[in-house]
User: Fold these one by one.
Assistant:
Number 1:
Amino acid sequence: GVALSAARLGVKAVICVPVTTPQVKVDAVRAHGGSMVEVVQAGESYSDAYAHAVRLQEERGLTFVHPFDDPYVIAGQGTVAMEILSKHQAPIHAIFVPIGGGGLAAGVAAYVKAVRPEIRVIGVQTDDSCAMAQSLKAGKRVELSEVGLFSDGTAVKLVGEETFRLCQEYLDDVLTVDTDALCAAIKDVFQDTRSVLEPAGALAVAGAKQYAEREGIDGKTLIAITSGANMNFDRMRFVAERAEVGEAREAVFAVTIPEERGSFKRFCELVGTRSVTEFNYRIDDAERAHIFVGVQIRNRGESAQIAQAFVDHGFPSVDLTGD
């Protein structure tokens, strides 16, 4: 957005992004900005890039454009809520919003609560980049020492002052989801719409799924704001692999079996008719062998049952499903 504005207005702009930013996003910034935009990559997270941008501002005498902690930016992002409510005037139970620094969530929540206060507004973060969730719980802004980088678009160590104030006043809740749930949400959206979201863009969908399952929601309207599609092609392999775990369709185990006649047959009998998705067998010594195996399952609780069955039959096992 800043790149496009700079090109339209004929104003030079320096845009700082982390080195972990997907190349497709960096290329898009350069394409929209053309000769008016300089892209600088610094640090691994948003907060690192922000600190570098502040230094450049001071060194070059530039005007700083904050990505989220600014009343006009928050108001601009709040127009997303205005569009949702104008297009869907029927009852809405909840709107789910991804949170990094909190600009989108603050703008959406402030607008919704002013116009349709009965609608719940729920923020969603990754469990390894949950600065807003921790801040709201503590009643003050909490700075994280590090953040997870899978959802690079929301990898923020410290939320904004104004965004925190508005989220504290207007948000109904903040949920956290893990990487596997994000991958499953990306797959869901692709299967439904043939669109490929980036991890940050799928946060709200993952949160809506978690909320619906937790609350037993049925027959109510949930709206998820999908906020970005800057996905590097080579990352899609990882997403596809982890989506099976996120959907609770695959369980993964490390199992130790005796290196003796009949033990592998007994192991196969415990696996039963389940489809094997991954398998690796290594002899440790003359007495033991290690097996790494993935099997298809029907629900989340089944992995613990399988692991216990291995142990009960003399096969030490580690359930790696959530690892």
Number 2:
Amino acid sequence: MSGEIAPTGKAVGLGSSPGLRASHADRDRMVDVLRVAAGDGLLTADELDERLEVALSARTLGELAALTADLPSVGAAGAEAKDTVRIEQVHSGAVERVGRWVVPRRLELAVTFCEVTLDFTDALITHDTLRVDVGMTGKTLTLVTRPGVVVDTDGLRLVFCKVKHRPTPTHPNTPVTLRVELVGEKTHGRVVVRPPRRTFGQWLLRRPAAPPPAEYR
């Protein structure tokens, strides 16, 4: 996409086309960049709120680029997104992508009897589609989603393997910020797509109220 926001917060190709209209995906990527910058201590809470408001209402790519003009390319916000990442692992520890990791365009999994977890809860999304080429035998492939992240398993061939897909509760008007396409073959084990697990506090808030003591009934 022309004017795509890079993980550094700088917009690709904006030097010659700052007047181009910004899309929903452009705004969403800038929101991710600003949040990472705040997490690195580069923005105060008030500055973050102000810039998020501008980002969500920006009409052009130039307006988005101005939001990070004073930010250095450091920390997670300065990590470069790769087009292709390949993971090869056999009979060893779990493979995990959690926290603020940068999502590439394509991920190749060549894994045998190793658990694999791709957690998108706090991931830095720089592209609108992630293709995951699965060549995995045994164990469980887990994808943890968040609102705006959808997973398509239609292109995945399953051999003695089951899929458990529990979508993240999402408002109907929430835009899709990342589409994860699983292709290839998963043999034995499971594929699990689920939202983040509730914290103990969230679990308590959703517990049904305890019945009143017998003397008050």
